[in-house]
Amino acid sequence: MAFHQAVPNSVGHLGSLLEAFLPWFGLVIVVLLVPALLRRSATALVALLLPTAVWALLFGRLLLPGTEPGPHDLVVVQHNVSDENADPVGTARTLAAAEPDLIALEELVPPALTEYARALAPDYPHHVIRGTVGLWSKHPLTGARPVDIKPRGITEPWSRGLRATVHAPRGDIAVYVAHLPSVRVRASGLASSWRDESAGLLGKAVAAEKLKTILLLGDLNGTVDDRGLAPLTSQMNTPQRGFAFSFPADFPMSRIDQVMTRSATVRQIRTLSSTDSDHLPVAARIALP
Q1: What angle do CA 116, 119, 120 make, to 5 degrees?
Q2: Are the beta carbons of 284 and 78 closer than 8 angstroms?
Q3: Cβ-contact 141, 167 below 8 angstroms
């Protein structure tokens, strides 16, 4: 068990709240290191060795330079475009400028949906939309269907998951696009029950997938360190390089926009230029088997 999982999640989901900002605990070590150096305290420096080593073990690899792109890599973009986005065309241009093979979008609402479709059509002739999530692709798509990740407590119409087969040059890939429920920080702690339930439903869908290679793109409203996403992170690969903090866009503190794979590798993830959304888009390079 990781050291941060010693924090219980039974009261106010405090464990998940801690895990949402876990990489920032490296700053705490730096803050403590400065006075230790100024006072030339050997005892304090030795005491900081353990948390420094733990942080480096958990996150140090994300700081390493990425490998060179391979000839068969896919580039994918994931973005919650915001249902209040006033510049869909500009947003679409920013995403397309990264020249990805796939673009996954969440919070698609009319009439902006029509503008995204029109702006992306020249470079992405294949696309599917289910509810408020969509997938645009340079490669043919088949087998598109909704994925039911709706928590039982939500009674209004709600469709935030889809699955499609991408016929990529290296073979077929099952691509899932999902937008899990939001979490809220309250006086009682982190309200994440719906998010956790939805993650469990998505995890079951992924586990039952017949195709070997899976790509999951989405606003999962949680970091890869958050135990609430364990139904997904326990069976999928997460990025090897890059922090790519994506939320909130004005001062990014965590990455809740995720790219995960099965039987493939997320070599690197990075943020793109800001759009008229409260999320930053993220782009990832996928090495296929």
Answers
A1: 85
A2: yes
A3: yes
Alpha carbons within 13 angstroms on the beta-carbon side of residue 110 total 2
pLDDT digits (tens, 9 = 90+) for 266-283: 999 999 999 999 999 999
**Mapping DSSP to helix (H, G, I), strand (E, B) and coil, where does residue 257 land?**
strand
Closest CA to 288 of 70, 67, 69, 73: 73
Give me Rg for the CA atoms of the chain: 20
Contact of 190 with 151, CB cutoff 8 Å:
no
C-beta separation of 236 from 214 below 8 A = yes
Look at residue 85 and tell me whether its pLDDT is greater than 60: yes
pTM: 0.83
Q: Report CA-CA distances (Å) from 208 to 15, 108, 204, 212.
A: 29, 27, 6, 10
**Within its chain, how far is the Cα of 72 from the centroid?**
22
Residues 84 and 78: their CA atoms lie apart, in Å, by 17
In 3D, which of 22, 70, 43, 54 has the Cα closest to residue 225? 22
